[in-house]
Amino acid sequence: MISLSQMLAKLVLFCLTFGQLYAAEILNSTDCSFKYGCFYSPKDCVDDQCEFVAKWRLIEDQIEFIIGAKFDKLKQNWLAIAFSYDKSMGNDSVVACKFNAEANNTVQNYYNPGQFDPELINSKEPSEGLSDVKITNFKGLLICTFKRDKSKNAKNFFDLNENYYLLMAKGDLEKDGSLTYHASDKAISQQKIDFNIALEAKSVKVSTNFVKIHAILMIIAWPFLSTIGILFARYYKSIFPKMNITGVQFWFLIHRPFMISVCLLSLIGFGFIFSYKNWSWTSQSSVKNFTHSIIGLVTIILSLIQPMMAFFRPDKLADNRPVFNWAHRLVGILVYSSSITAVFLGIIIFLKNFHWIGLFSWIVWLVILIVLLEVFHSRSSTDKVHEKSNEFKISENEEPKIGIQKTILLIVHIVLSLLWTLMMILAILEYF
Q1: Which of 109, 146, 242, 249 has a CA between 20 and 30 Å from the CA of residue 281?
Q2: Do the beta carbons of residue 314 and residue 395 sit within 8 Å?
Q3: For residues 345 and 339, what is the distance between their CA atoms, to the nearest angstrom?
Q4: Could you tell me which residue, 5 or 428, shows the higher pLDDT?
Q5: How far is CA 410 from the centre of its chain?
Q6: Mean pLDDT, residues 208-217 taken together
Q7: CB-based contacts of 66: which residues, under 8 Å, 6+ apart?
Q8: DSSP for 136-204, written as a single string
Q9: How far is CA 187 from the centre of its chain?
Q10: What's the rounded Cα separation, in Å, for the pair 180 and 100?
Q11: How far apart are CA 293 and CA 159, in angstroms?
């Protein structure tokens, strides 16, 4: 009679053998172009050097897919294959394999209307159009097999009698089973594929360098440069009062180049992301991405209005100078608020969850900094708001002295700002 331990040992051996056979099947390229259609990424990779693998064959009215991808650590992850009209995400049919070491594995059918906001084709039956699903993990290689109906009378269910670009991606699962953004973990076929025949499809290298440049430039421009530029204009006008270069006070020597740099970096960053998007706007179907793009555009427009207003500013003693002061301040508050919103939306969309700590720590620090500076500013300020003939204006002749507290706060902010900016840049380089 077989003991329980012997049965368990045989079961483990069977699973390992099954996993080895499965891995050998998908990595074997000798049956490509006659038994299976094949896709390997990077192009011309061999065996376990491949990041993504896909094989398919026609079986009556279905197409059987075997897809695989390497993971550093498998716990709660997803692997997906998409059928697309172009080489970009958006308006795609997606089959996602969900692996959970502590729960049931599932394979589900999605439609992706935008860059990354997939929705189930049938929420009541997530695996509609799919059958014979299997998910296997073998030494960090996640392998998913399923049969997909070629066509089905269902909304957003793509007909595989047509040719499509093949897109593959992988990432982590949220606790609720939803898919996180895949960043640079993706592969794309060089040409459209006919999945009804066995052929070998080539992959193209996916570069996200323009996205990285866009994100880094915006992080440097707004949370770092613009914050310092605004702080000097609001709280540090009397810093180094005797330093006067070509009739320009020190605070303005900081404020003006910093804010001009913000405008230039924003325009350059906008150009990079627009080029990455093939000069097309983000689809409205991807709500978060579309919102990010619109707020970003508003920010850039407002940031260009600010230096134009400053160029035409009236003299200090002019009667309409108070109007300029308030208009410049109001637009400044609007543009800074929209910029931080756009930057933080980008962080939420594209960076992993642990970077939320950095996001909220920055918000908390800004609130503390502004509250403290306002307290010190009001205590030492000799500025007064005068009301004459229903007019108001800000006095510019007397500025509060810079106390030791405000000096310390400025130094602390610059140091923390540098560290936070560096942390965000490293996160962008790591994740994209």
Answers
A1: 109
A2: no
A3: 10
A4: 428
A5: 31
A6: 91
A7: 25, 26, 36, 53, 54, 55, 56, 143, 144, 145
A8: EEETTEEEEEEEEES--SSTT---TTS-BEEEEEEEEBPTTSPBPP-TT-EEEESS-B-TTS--EEPEE
A9: 17
A10: 14
A11: 32
pLDDT at residue 27, as a whole number: 67
Q: What are the tens digits of pLDDT across the range 246-270? A: 778 899 999 999 999 999 999 999 9
The residue written with tokens 């009804």 in the block is 196
CA torsion sign, 387 to 391 to 394 to 398?
negative
Q: Which amino acid is at 172?
A: D
Highest mean pLDDT among 218-227, 271-280, 400-409: 218-227
Give me the DSSP letters along 49-111.
G-SEEEEEEEETTEEEEEEEEE-SS-SEEEEEEEEESSSSSSSEEEEEEEEETTS--EEEEEE
Record the pTM.
0.73
Query: At residue 12, does pLDDT exceed 60?
Result: no
Tokens of 285: 């179907």
Give the separation between CA 323 and CA 342, rounded to whole angstroms: 28
Q: How confident is the model at residue 285 (pLDDT cuts 50, 70, 90)?
A: low
How crowded is residue 116: how many other Cβ atoms within 10 Å of its Cβ?
A: 19
- Here the tokens at position 336 are 């800074």
